[in-house]
Amino acid sequence: MTPVIAFGEALVDMLSSRLGETAGEAAETFTPYAGGAPANVAVACARLGVPSRFLGMLGEDHFGDFLAAELAAHGVDLSGVVRTREARTALAFVSRDAHGERTFDFYRPPAADLLYRLEHLPPGVFADPAIVHFCSNSLTEPEIADTTLAMADMASRAGCLVSVDANLRHNLWAAGGADIALVTQLIDRAALVKLSGDELDYLRADHPAEAWLAERLAAGVRLVVITDGPGEVRVLGVGKELSHTPPAVEAVDTTAGGDAFIGGLLAELAERLGEPEREGEWYQDDAFLRRALGTAANCGAHAVTRPGAYAALPDRNDLARLRG
User: Fold this and answer.
1) Count of Cβ atoms closer than 10 Å to residue 47 Cβ
2) Residue 59's beta-bridge partner residues?
3) How much is the pTM?
4) What is the phi/psi pair of residue 122, to 5°?
5) pLDDT tens digits for 56-100?
6) How many other C-beta atoms can be found within 10 angstroms of the C-beta atom of residue 320?
7) CATH architecture, domain defined by 4-323
8) In the 8-state DSSP scheme, what is residue 197?
9) I need a surface site. Which of 7, 246, 287, 315 has the fewest CB within 10 A?
10) Residue 188 to residue 203: CA distance in whole angstroms
11) How many CB atoms within 10 Å of residue 145?
């Protein structure tokens, strides 16, 4: 099975006790949950039995200890994690509406994850075939953006499959909105791209959606997966379009829904890439793609029915129960 390597931020989600209540109706408390989009994906893959490694930097503080312990407890390889005293581990205060949809208040920057550099990479990290996963939150400062883009290039040149989840968090950017050109640069380095319908609309700006997507495919992206919360998932490739409807569930907390989805998709891809005797490329195999979409959608559906991120991610037994 091909391992998954996820790079970027691990942070602590401080999840509000309120669900759809307005200020003043109840005392608000916050419970810490381990999170951070790429770290969530590393955990999602590990819980599904995929060899999983996380690359990133944590502060030498209580929250960094908490995250390291949680990642290790879920079976994630931490040999690429660096600790620092130069900045603290990032926090995100998460509020939820009555449908579990969340808003974030980030305490970042400064934060330890933004200090990771190429010299922190373990020797030979991309020497063997791997799926290397990125998100756009490691583009929000110039130095970490340079590191991220260079790392994606290194992984691709080494023969790894690069995966990118747009995962736009506009309030992390100094300008108040994600840098479209910079995010697009990262996307165009990927073979597999996941983004929501809202993210597609933001990134394409005044370009027609189909034209913008065609530009990504022309740049070398093999497959674009477009999610819409509980709605239909679309998959687009050169000469290919598939769709899948996720199972209907009652959402409690959508924090890890997208990360669970891409984790499930990468877990299926990790298994597929580990079987070189199978004919055809993974992005041309409709039977594989339909199965992978089903697994991904079930992972996302399971995650949104539970609070938190790592704690909400399913294992194989959870998926079997969901399938009934």
Assistant:
1) 25
2) 84
3) 0.93
4) -65, 145
5) 999 999 999 999 999 999 999 999 999 999 999 999 888 777 665
6) 11
7) 3-Layer(aba) Sandwich (3.40)
8) H
9) 287
10) 12
11) 19
